[in-house]
Design brief:
Length: 97
């Protein structure tokens, strides 16, 4: 599997190993639409989507980012967004082949 963004290979390797690297590092929280900009500015939000009218965010962090977050089992979508949207200081280690 490879993740390519703007012509640059960001990750290349085994999908299961990529998921394993995120184990314990994906956190979810439902927030209001008004709160969403705050979370995007202050946390490493890798994805957000509407669920029942409220944004649900996924944050990449080594520890619980704040009260109200729940740890999630990562999936390939989290792997993808961790490379595409994560802040540089928190991106995963070098690609595996």
């Amino acid at each position: 599997m490879a993740i390519i963004n703007k012509g640059q290979v960001l990750m290349q390797g085994n999908p299961l190993k990529a998921i394993e690297k995120l184990a314990g590092r994906i956190w979810r929280k439902r927030v209001s639409r008004e709160e969403l900009p705050f979370y995007k500015e202050n946390f490493n939000v890798i994805s957000d989507k509407l669920m029942a009218g409220l944004p649900t965010i996924h944050v990449l962090a080594d520890e619980m980012p704040a009260v109200g977050f729940y740890q999630m089992q990562p999936d390939l979508e989290d792997v993808y967004f961790s490379y595409i949207t994560a802040k540089p200081e928190s991106q995963l280690t070098a690609p595996e082949k």
